[in-house]
Each structure stands twice: as C-alpha cells, then as structure tokens.
Amino acid sequence: QHAIEKYTIAMVAQSDERKCKSVGCDQGFHNYLYYLGNLDEWLASTNKRGEQTCDIRVHVHGEGAVNNLSAMRESPLRDQGVLKTFDVDETYVTKDGNIVV
To answer: Which of 6, 21, 36, 57 could disulfide-link to 42, CB 3.0 to 4.6 Å?
Structure first.
C-alpha cells in the first residue's frame, strides 16, 4: 500500500506540474518517473524483516500480462496476433499466446 500511495502522489505531481490534458499523458508520466529513477526510493523499500516490499518488472511491449493496446495502432490487433477468438469471446493474448488480464 505504501508504494501505491507514493506512486499516486508522484503521478499527480507530474500531472499538476505538466498540466497535460491529452489522452495518454499518464503513460508518459509513468515512463518519465520510472526510467529517470524517480521511483527508486520506493522500489527499494523494505518491511520490518528487511524484505523488499516492491518488485517492478518491465516487459517488452506485447510480452507482459498488462499491455497498452492503444500503442499498437500501426495495424489491426488481430493481424498482430494479440486478439484471438476462443469460442465466441475475443481475448487479448501476449506474443507467446498467454492470455492478457
């Protein structure tokens, strides 16, 4: 919970500072905070037993469990292999076929 609160504070601060109203600004804010190391203090936090309490992994787009589908607009999602039909339901999958949540 501590890490989520700090992350939210950092994201709101970016929004307030940049005053961006465009769709997708939040992804830019996130990337800015993460890749410039502005989240390192919270990522390195530990609990009372000295165990790391936050673990963030960056995956190549299309390979992780969570994906930004709007970033994949260069061609239809079905042509990219990330939209599959199982029975009657359409489901998003990673490049290796795992279902995306």
So the answer is: 6
